[in-house]
UniProtKB/TrEMBL annotation:
Family note: Belongs to the short-chain dehydrogenases/reductases (SDR) family.
Keywords, ordered alphabetically: Oxidoreductase
Annotated stretches, region: Disordered: 46-65
Any one GO molecular function term: oxidoreductase activity
Name used for this protein in its record: Uncharacterized protein
Keyword Oxidoreductase: yes
Classification via InterPro entries: SDR_fam
KW Oxidoreductase (keyword) present: yes
Upper classification of the organism: Eukaryota, Viridiplantae, Streptophyta, Embryophyta, Tracheophyta
Length: 429
């Protein structure tokens, strides 16, 4: 039902992926037989959320009306999530066969883009292609020397065409919230417009033990969710200046098996065992939920579109921490896995296609409970059922603001052009 809504809204692309619908219908009918009552409750909550009362009303109403707190993903949602992941892995090449590789980009001479994690994998490809299409690209990276070497190489490759790339490097370490504040202060001080922020940098430390950053947060949570959330809000004045502008979050199909416990964002309470897979999936779901509230709260007149993107299953350095034998197997299945060039297409599409902001605006006017989600095949899709839960999305929003050290009214102030104080700096933005 979510896929049908997205396609109706869309107007670009248009063709519904029939294989996936059949698969979803099969799972739905199976789920229905197994647990009819439970399915009805969750579906109504998700599908009806466009007409649901606002989150404040949902959480109010005294103890008598208080709903039981959900503590984990239901097994049916979990099963559906894994089906979506396996489907993406097996069929992404077929489903995306209509998308050109590389994706043709429009001329981008007047566009300024910040790309985080632009020294490797998908981010490197995104930055290179944007720059080669004429955009002013800021590589926001933790290894500036490597970024300068890459620019030199790209420039040498283009020397025959006489194209002068407009790329610069700024240091940014997502494992330090101070570093994000410094980056945003430096950028905002230019009083220059920002048209596209691409939150690409991410980690998936497969099989690694739990690690806590110096800011006190589980590392997947910080790098994949908290840091991009803080960066997006702190760069708000520049995005307003560049309006119409976009925030593109490179997300993952893995969010479908994620669950965010706002009372245990660091996964340290021992209520459930820490695994890097759960930490990664949860952080990606938290990003979808936070982005959905951001999308909902930004007034249409601000002209800032928020979207999440799935790049597909892509051959990059993201698997560098896997055991050697698994990395070897990973290299042996090139048919199924996208190259970084192929994996960059959905993000580049979200960042540059002129119809994407129209789609975001349509979702907003429909009061759809989630932000736009662009799939690896450059078509809009719907994130998981859990992502549609507005009540928990609001909790994720509130908790995230608290963790990144911003006041609960930060967005309102930013929209009004007022300064906001972040706990990670003494200076007003
Ligand atoms: N590959 C896939 O199959 C896949 C699937 C779904 C989603 N994604 C998402 O796609 C995005 C890009 O991943 P990728 O596959 O291209 O992986 P990658 O090759 O490992 O690239 C990740 C980039 O993020 C940067 N980064 C990591 N930690 C950082 C930090 N603390 N501060 C600043 N930058 C940091 C890395 O910088 P260094 O070069 O300095 O390490 C690198 O440039 C991620 O958000 C990932 O979750 C990937």
């Amino acid at each position: 039902m979510f896929t049908v809504h997205a396609s109706r809204c869309l107007g670009f692309g248009g063709r519904i992926n029939q294989t996936r619908i059949v698969l979803e219908l099969l799972i739905l009918s199976f789920s229905f037989r197994c647990s009819a009552a439970r399915f009805m409750t969750s579906s109504v909550a998700a599908a009806g959320s466009s007409s649901s009362p606002p989150p404040s009303a949902l959480s109010g109403g005294g103890d008598g009306g208080r709903k039981e707190r959900k503590e984990a993903l239901g097994w049916i949602e979990w099963f559906r999530g894994w089906c979506a992941i396996v489907w993406e892995f097996l069929f992404q090449r077929i489903a995306a066969s209509h998308v050109e590789n590389p994706l043709p980009l429009p001329p981008l001479e007047d566009v300024t883009c910040i790309v985080t994690g632009a020294t490797s994998g998908i981010g490197l490809e995104i930055a290179r292609q944007l720059a080669e299409s004429g955009a002013h690209v800021v590589m926001a990276v933790r290894r500036p020397n490597l970024a300068h070497e890459l620019i030199q190489k790209w420039q040498n490759d283009k020397s025959e065409s006489g194209l002068l790339l407009n790329v610069e490097v700024m240091e940014l370490d997502l494992l330090s919230l101070d570093s994000i504040v410094r980056f945003a202060e430096a950028w905002n001080a230019r009083n220059a417009p920002l048209h596209v922020l691409i939150n690409n940098a991410g980690i998936f430390s497969i099989g690694e033990p739990q690690r806590i950053s110096k800011d006190g947060y589980e590392e997947h949570l910080q790098v994949n969710h908290l840091a991009p959330a803080l960066l997006s809000l702190l760069l708000f004045p520049s995005l307003l200046r560049g309006s119409p502008s976009r925030i593109v979050n490179v997300n993952s199909i893995m969010h479908c098996v994620g669950f965010v416990d706002t009372e245990d964002m660091n996964m340290t309470s021992r209520r459930r065992k820490f695994t890097s897979l759960a930490a990664y999936s949860n952080s990606k779901l938290a990003q979808v939920k936070f982005s959905s509230i951001l999308h909902k709260q930004i007034p249409a007149e601000a002209g800032i579109s928020i979207m999440c993107v799935s790049p597909g299953v892509v051959h990059t350095n993201v698997a560098r921490d896997l055991p050697k034998i698994v990395v070897a197997a990973y290299h042996l299945i090139p048919y199924f896995i996208f190259s970084a060039l192929e994996g960059s297409r959905s993000t580049l599409f979200a960042a540059t296609d002129p119809q994407v902001p129209e789609y975001c605006a349509l979702l907003k006017s429909d009061e759809w409970p989630v932000c736009a989600y662009i799939s690896f095949d450059c078509r809009p899709t719907n994130p998981s059922e859990e992502a549609h839960n507005l009540e928990t999305s609001q909790l994720v929003w509130d908790k995230t603001l608290e963790l990144i050290g911003l006041p609960s009214d930060a967005l309102g102030k930013l929209i009004e052009g007022e300064p906001v104080q972040c706990r990670y700096t003494s200076k007003a933005q």
